[in-house]
Amino acid sequence: MSGASSMNPYLDDDLRALAEHAGRYAEERVAPGFLERDRTRVLDRALMREMGELGFIAPELPEAFGGQGLGSLAAGVIHEAIARADLSLSYVNLLASLNGQILSAHGRPEVVGPWMRRLVRGETLLAIALTEPRGGSDAANLALRIERVGDEYVIDGEKTSISAADQADAVVVFGRTGAPQSGAHGVTALLVPCDAPGLTRSRFDCHGQRAIGRGSLFFDGVRVPVDHRLGEEDKGFVQVMQGFDFSRALIGLQVLAVAQVALEETWAWVVQREAFGQPLSAFQGVSHPLADFDTQVQGARLLCLQALWLKDRGLPHSAEAAMCKWWGPKLAYDAVHQCLLLHGHGGYDRGLMEQRLRDVLGFQIGDGTAQIMKTIVARARAGRKAVPA
Ligand SMILES: Cc1cc2nc3c(=O)[nH]c(=O)nc-3n(C[C@H](O)[C@H](O)[C@H](O)COP(=O)(O)OP(=O)(O)OC[C@H]3O[C@@H](n4cnc5c(N)ncnc54)[C@H](O)[C@@H]3O)c2cc1C
Questions:
Q1: Which of 131, 159, 194 to mutate to test the pocket of ligand 1 (most atoms within 8 A of CB)?
Q2: What's the pLDDT tens digit per position in 267-326?
Q3: pTM confidence score
Q4: From the CA of 366, how far away is ligand 1's center (Å)?
Q5: Contact between 267 and 342 (Cβ < 8 Å)
Q6: Are 187 and 140 in contact (CB under 8 A)?
Q7: Which atom of ligand 1 is the closest one to the Cα of 368?
Q8: If you take atom 9 of ligand 1, which residue's CA is the nearest one?
């Protein structure tokens, strides 16, 4: 986004300069491989390292862990810039910010420190594994077993639908240390290096987001030292899940950036393409849907920036983050769909628009569906007792 429309109360001159810097980089270095990476299904580690060298990965992390101590809004504007060029590659930013926050808040510095410094330099990729074959919405109802044996935890079970499952170098895993019926109060989180003996992985054939991909993780007696625990034993869910408010606002920005670039290209296209002796834009059936989506995308983006602004001030933002997470992906999908249709038959060919549509769709499910997000909003408004499930 450029010009006056990029100006708003959340972004000062420094953040706008950072956004422009990241935007130029993304256009030159990330955008050219967008279609190719969808075919090869491989994240470009050289690009990851470049992004790290430029300070584009998790800039909000403390300097002691290799970050820059910038706010969440800095992470947000960089995330938008990379996602605009390739949503799949911007998972590098998303996973680093989500996992980096979890590690820095809940890990032992001597264990997580080296991982975080590599994370920020773009030298390592961390995944997060909550979902199990039984289901993801009822997220606290975990079956993966974590047993403490002496100075180690032993992990047995399966995680599924995990982004970057087969490309990650380590994974934050949530499993049950408490009794089977202990719900959210018997869950422990661990940092597990992916080369740990007994851990095997698979890759799914995904509809979109193919460069990052998803897959399953199978744990067969995997052992990690007790010091790899994140947060307290049995408190993994209650303590660590708070990190998801951050990723929900970032996901909103991520998908809306894709909608924004699709809208910009489509405005240019409908001015230049003619039918019935006039530019397509002369028909209100063309220009009004675009104006409609443009309005909503601008509004939803401001909500995402507001959620990050609240986070940076230590103010409650769970409801706002959940709003970003359901509204953004639905709106982005509908907006890109409209853009694709206005490109006529060309929009249906393999290419930018259809790939964007496939890419944004994943986030109507990943990180929690709209129903679950609306329950979070409802609980914030009406109270947990009034909205039990
Ligand atoms: C692109 C993508 C990336 C992902 N990445 C990760 C990842 O990195 N790590 C990870 O752990 N997981 C990841 N997931 C999994 C994702 O978090 C789950 O798919 C999601 O939480 C939903 O769980 P489920 O698929 O098991 O659906 P289910 O829980 O079986 O739900 C099925 C349907 O029922 C609805 N439903 C369920 N309960 C309710 C209710 N109480 N009220 C109303 N409706 C309800 C749901 O909204 C959904 O539409 C990813 C998924 C996708 C698609």
A1: 131
A2: 999 999 999 999 999 999 999 999 999 999 999 999 999 999 999 999 999 999 999 999
A3: 0.97
A4: 6
A5: no
A6: yes
A7: 21
A8: 162
